Amino acid sequence: MEYKTVKLQLGIFTSGFFFGLGLAIAGMTQPSKVLNFLDLAALATGTWDATLLAVLVALWLPLLLVTV
Amino acid sequence: MSLFIGLIGGVLIGLGAVTLMMIAGRIAGISGIAGGVLFPHKNDWLWRVVFLLGLLFGAWLVGQYWPAHFEISALNNGVLALSAFLVGFGAILANGCTSGHGVCGLARMSRRSMVAVGVFMSVAIITVWVVRHGV
Question: Global pTM?
Answer without folding.
Answer: 0.93
